Amino acid sequence: MELLEIVQRRRSIRAFTNRALEEEKLQQILRIVSLAPSAGNLQAREIYVVTDGQQKRALAKASLGQEFVAAAPIVLVFCARPERSAGRYGERGRRLYSLQDATIACTYAMLAVTDLGLATVWVGAFGDSAVSRAIGLPDEVQPVALLPIGYAAEQPAATSRRPLSDLVHKL
Questions:
Q1: Strand ranges (DSSP E) for 19-102?
Q2: Is the alpha carbon torsion for 154, 157, 162, 167 positive or negative?
Q3: Number of separate helices (H) and strands (E) present in the chain
Q4: pLDDT 10s per residue in the chain (171 long)?
Q5: Strands of 45-50's sheet, edge to edge?
Q6: Where are the alpha helices (DSSP H) in 65-126?
Q7: Cα gap 37→148, rounded to integer Å
Q8: Distance between CA atoms of 162 and 14, rounded to whole angstroms?
Q9: In the chain, is it the N or the C terminus that has fewer CB atoms within a 10 Å radius of its CB?
Q10: How buried is 54 (Cβ within 10 angstroms: 0-12 exposed, 13-18 middle, 19+ buried)?
């Protein structure tokens, strides 16, 4: 699939079928995620693969009751590891670069998911400490995004986008 087609086909899916996710597809997503760029190539991010039903239910509760999180066969939890960036980049690395590392990796995962014929939605509405407790994150790891992954049980239409003339500013 061409990148433009992948980007155009991607939708935010909040309903999943009961079909299990093939291990080969998960491994392909994770390999692509590992190729995502990062500040100074420090890779100040961690990805937790959650398949346990109880942990997924706890993540759904932590994400303000978004039950579709628990319904997905797999949930990837993208986290920042601020101190990995802070050693080289100080406070800016701690506050920003590690967060960017995690979000870029999550975006790569979303595109890989779409390319493989799977579905997902970026979940950013959650309590950090509740997510940390749900999956036992170390104190030095900060959750940034949840990515429930599975086969789509819905096909929403494309959403509108701002026109480039409103979005892009040439100087």
A1: 45-50, 74-80
A2: positive
A3: 8, 4
A4: 599 999 999 999 999 999 999 999 999 999 999 999 999 999 999 999 999 999 999 999 999 999 999 999 999 999 999 999 999 999 999 999 999 999 999 999 999 999 999 999 999 999 999 999 999 999 999 999 999 999 999 999 999 999 999 999 999
A5: 45-50, 74-80, 142-150, 119-120
A6: 68-71, 82-92, 98-115
A7: 22
A8: 23
A9: C
A10: exposed
Contacts of 11 (CB under 8 A, 6+ apart): 119, 152, 155, 156, 158
Longest dimension (CA), the chain: 52
Phi then psi for 58, rounded to 5 degrees?
-65, -35
**102 beta partners:** none
Domain 3-155: give its CATH code.
3.40.109.10
Q: What b/e readout covers 115-139, taking b as 16+ CB neighbours within 10 angstroms? A: bbebbbbbbeebeeeebbebbebee
Q: Is the dihedral of CA 53, 58, 59, 65 positive or negative?
A: positive
The distance of Cα 94 from the centroid of its chain, to the nearest Å, equals 20
